[in-house]
Design goal:
Elements lengths: L3 E10 L2 E10 L2 E10 L4 H10 L10 E2 L10 H14 L1 H47 L4
Antiparallel strand pairs: 1-2, 2-3, 3-4
């Protein structure tokens, strides 16, 4: 059976309101972070995702380890849910996925910047060499 879900958590990270989207498809997990600015209403969230004007960049897909769901005592399930709401472990998992994506982007930018600097240095060196050759051409 296919199991797909999308969950959004809106929280306040000083000085902005931030939305954390968590996408689960089968056993794959990815997350994205959206900065809203002012506190969004549920209506604004609904329209933002329906119109899809803003591209959402999800982190790389990682395997999710699912726990067995037990259909046990309802009081126990209620306690478990309350404990999970206190811990907010899903948010930290989303933060970890977003952080990993951020680290990958940083590494990519460093590589691109390094290549650009090397290309610029090669260009300057070749220009300097051609000027030196042009000076001594008449001798």
């Amino acid at each position: 059976m296919l199991r797909n879900s999308l969950q959004i958590t809106v929280l306040f990270e000083d000085p902005f309101w931030v939305g954390i989207l968590e996408r689960t498809e089968e056993d794959q997990y990815s997350a994205a972070k959206i900065v809203f600015g002012v506190e969004p209403t549920s209506n604004e969230l609904y329209h933002r995702f329906l119109q899809n004007n803003y591209p959402i960049k999800f982190s790389d897909v990682s395997k999710e380890h699912r726990q067995k769901k037990s259909h046990g005592n309802p009081k126990r399930r209620k306690r478990i849910v309350q404990r999970e709401m206190k811990n907010r472990s899903n948010v930290s998992k989303a933060h970890a996925a977003i952080k990993a994506q951020h680290e990958l982007m940083k590494i990519e930018k460093v590589c691109l910047r390094k290549e650009a600097l090397e290309e610029n240095a090669r260009y300057k060196y070749n220009l300097k060499q051609s000027k030196r050759k042009a000076k001594h051409k008449g001798r």
